[in-house]
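Issue 218. Parser rejects a valid record. Input:
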Amino acid sequence: MCLRFTFLRITRVTAWLRLSRREEAWKTAEILILRRQLAVLQRRQPRRPTVNWADRALLAALLAVIPRARRQGMRLLVTPDTILRWHRDIVRRRWATRSKRGRTGRPVTRRNITALVLRLARENPGWGYRRIHGELVRLDYSI
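Output the parser choked on:
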């Protein structure tokens, strides 16, 4: 009985010392991860717990704070490879939404400039695109 008590006391003290050496961000992130996992597990689900996009984003962001050695020792609902895949998906979605903002591709040319270019080409068949562009620059139109 005394030996068991001593063993438990030593393990608790070493766990406390290990916990006190960690940075505050790690502790907070780990607590938040465990809380999120508990919330996922407490949902009423007939089969395996499903993780929605908000859970994925939060877990992926919080696990980035925790160092790799500590991450591998944690009991997670998903594997570390799955979390890396979530990171890639988050980055892919971010850049996909940025590219949809209309900044890609050729800028739109105004109709009056298009009509002017076609008129110059029609009236001067010997001019190429460089000459037409030069004339437009001289007229202070930028294409």
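Fixed in the parser; the record now loads. The chain has a mean pLDDT of 77.
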